[in-house]
UniProtKB/TrEMBL annotation:
PANTHER family: PROTON MYO-INOSITOL COTRANSPORTER. Keywords: Membrane, Transmembrane, Transmembrane helix, Transport. PROSITE patterns: MFS (PS50850), SUGAR_TRANSPORT_1 (PS00216). It comes from Octopus bimaculoides (California two-spotted octopus). This is Major facilitator superfamily (MFS) profile domain-containing protein. Pfam families: Sugar_tr (PF00083). One of its GO terms (cellular component) is apical plasma membrane. The lineage of its organism: Eukaryota, Metazoa, Spiralia, Lophotrochozoa, Mollusca.
Length: 119
């Protein structure tokens, strides 16, 4: 039983580390993509800052209330909602045709970040 328990603990630790890695990957990939997107969408400096920093305040706000959401609906549903908002936000960001759609997608990614990091 001890060997099985330690395996599960290691597995859960790896999964938790991957969720944090996805946040770092998103921020890193977004900064590289911004070099191309700013010219294609004619983003001003203010819009570039909003697109890059936009998910972070959303994540802070959501992380404050994510524990209550998890208590009400359960961890599994909260984690699934986090994954869905992260996935949908990434799709919206990747298929954005204007700066508002891009920012909306980034905010949705911020929802996923906030829920993911608390749970």
């Amino acid at each position: 039983l001890e060997g099985k328990t330690s395996f599960i603990i290691y597995l859960l630790s790896i999964i938790a580390q991957l969720s944090v890695l996805s946040v770092g990957y998103d921020l890193g990939a977004s900064s590289g993509a911004l070099l191309l997107v700013k010219d294609a969408m004619h983003l001003s400096t203010t819009w570039q800052q909003l697109v890059m920093a936009g998910p972070l305040p959303i994540a802070v706000i959501i992380s404050i209330i994510a524990a209550k959401i998890s208590d009400k609906f359960g961890r599994r549903k909260t984690i699934m909602a986090s994954s869905v908002s992260y996935l949908v936000g990434s799709i919206v960001t990747g298929s954005a045709v204007n700066q508002y759609m891009l920012l909306c997608g980034r905010f949705m990614v911020g929802f996923g970040f906030g829920k993911q990091n608390v749970i």
